[in-house]
Structure formats: structure tokens, C-alpha cells
Amino acid sequence: MGVFLDPFNHLGGNFEINYNLLQCHQDLGYAMKEIAFVIKIGLILSLMVGWILPADATNLKTIQQLLETKDCHSSLWKYCNLEGANLQGLDLSNTNLSGANLKQANLREASLKYANLSGADLRQANLENTNLLRANLNKAKLSEANLTQSSLLEVNLTLANLSYANLEKAKLLGARLWGTNLSQANLTNASLRGTNLQYANLENSNLSFADVNSLLFRDATQFTDLSNANLQGANLEGVHLETVILQGAVMPDGSIHE
């Protein structure tokens, strides 16, 4: 019987090797395309949720953009970090700074009228002579902040923390301080006419010579803590103190409340 000889038999090994190499190249190409696609999607998502960069307090372009857009939330900013920023005298009225980190920032004589600062961190910030007319500072952190002579007319400070803050000669007419922590705060010569201080904590605060005419403490179920507070020389005309805790407080005439 004759033997069939395959003329390409001696090339069979080479064909198999070449085929495997071609298959590897194709698989590698597909893998690279998939990786590139994943990277593109990641970049798009990063831009959408702001994972790229934080707002940089030291970058002048960041400050300029903030002034132009009136918003510290951007697709290019991871979060609003303006810690230690020098914003003195700037017009930031109507600006969205909610949740911003403004710790130790210099906002002296700046305009923050109608600004949204809810949940912002303003600890140890300088807000001396700053205009905060009707600003939203709900749940903001303002402990040890300097608010000397600042204008806080009709501002919303609900549940904000102002412990150890300096509010000397500050104007708080019509301000909402419901549940606000003002313990150890300095309110000397401050104006609090018509202010809502229900549930507020003013323990050990200094209200000497403050004008608290018509201060809202009313409603027997909502207590305000003024224990050990200094009210010497304060104007309490028209103030209802029935639900106020005054233990150890220095009263306007200098006497200590038992």
C-alpha cells in the first residue's frame, strides 16, 4: 500500500506557532482596548463626582474662579478646601460654600450676604467686621472664631457651634440661634434684639452690657441654658425668662442668681 505524504507536513509546527502568536496579539489588542475604555470611564466619573482635585486655597486661580462662579463645588474640585485662605475684603455674597473647609481663613471685612455656609468649618476663622446678612450657617462650626463687630442680621445659626467664639459688639438682630452652642462665647455689647435663642446653650457665656431686648425664650417646653452666664448691665427689657436656666448667672444688677 502506498503511503500518503503531506507536502506541508514539515511546516505544520510553524503554522501552529504562527497561529498561536497571532491569537496572542489579538487577545492583547482586545485587552488594551478594554483597559483604555475602563480608564476613560474612570476619568469621566471622576469629573462627574469631583474626584480630581480639591479647591486650593493657595491657588489664585481658584479664588478667582470662586469669585466668578459663586460656587465652591466644581467637577474639578474634590472638595472645597480653603483652610487658611486669605479672603479679606472679598465679595462672596450669594456664594455656595456649604460644607467648605474655611478653618483659620481670613474673612475680615468680607461680604458673605446671603451666602450658603451650612455645615462649613469656620473654626478659628477671622470674621471681624464681616457682613453675613441672612447667610445660612446651619450646623456650621465656628468655635473660637472671631466675629467681633460682625453683622449677623437675620442669619441662620441653627444648631451651629459658636463655643468660645468672640462676638463682641456683633449685631445679631433677628438671628436664628435655635439650639446653637454659645457656651463660653463672648457677647459683650452684642445686639441680640428679637433673636431666637430657644434651646440654645449659653453656659458660661459673657453677655455683659448686651442688648437682649425682646429676646425670644418663650415656650415652656424649650429651655435655654444661661447658667453661670454674665448678664451684668445687659438690657433684658421685654425678655421672658420663665424657661431659662439661670443658675449661677450674674444678673444685670450684679447679683448672682441662685
TrEMBL record:
Q: Which UniProt keywords apply?
A: Membrane, Transmembrane, Transmembrane helix
Q: Does the keyword Membrane apply?
A: yes
For whether the record's keyword set contains Transmembrane helix, the answer is: yes
Q: Where are the transmembrane segments?
A: 35-53
Origin species = Planktothrix agardhii (strain NIVA-CYA 126/8)
Q: Which domain of life is it from?
A: Bacteria
Protein name per UniProt: Pentapeptide repeat-containing protein
